[in-house]
Amino acid sequence: GRSKMAAGGAADSQARFGHSVKGLLTEKVTSCGTDVIALTKQVLKGSRSAELLGQAARNMVMQEDAILHSEDSLRKMAIITTHLQYQQEAIQKNVERSSNLQDQLSHLLK
């Protein structure tokens, strides 16, 4: 009778051991799954931030182009302004000369 009980006890402890192993496995699988999900989220976040960085870089390049274009336009406008100033001075001199001529003519015609 004793060996039967001992066998029963052994089977019992084996069943308990099996249960605890199953429990540990389930726990491990669950934590592994959680880790995988966390890792996936991290990777997605990383790719998203890389995407955003790329977009920011593209925007910077576009702005740089715009700034260079503006600088070029300003330089051209400065040149045009200088030319206009020269023309204005020439016109003023011509006006002064013509008014001098008119004065001389009116003196001659008196």
Span of the ends, CA to CA: 160 Å
Main sheet properties = none
Mean pLDDT: 87
Order of helices and strands: H
Strand content: under 5%
Q: Give the number of DSSP strands.
A: 0
Roughly how many Å is the radius of gyration? 47 Å
Structural shape: rod-shaped
Runs in which pLDDT lies below 50 for 5 or more consecutive residues are none
Kindly state the percentage of residues in helix.
Answer: over 70%
Query: What is the SS-derived class?
Result: mainly alpha
What is the count of helical runs? 1
Features:
single chain; 110 residues; mainly alpha; rod-shaped; membrane; BORCS7; lysosome; BLOC-1-related complex subunit 7
Can you lay out the helices and strands and say which pair or pack?
Elements: H1 2-109
Explain what you see.
With 110 residues, this protein is mainly α. It is 98% helix and 0% strand. It has one helix and no strands. It has one helix at residues 2-109. The chain is rod-shaped and about 160 Å long. The chain starts with a helix and ends with a helix. It is found in: Lysosome membrane. This is BLOC-1-related complex subunit 7. One of its GO terms (cellular component) is lysosomal membrane.
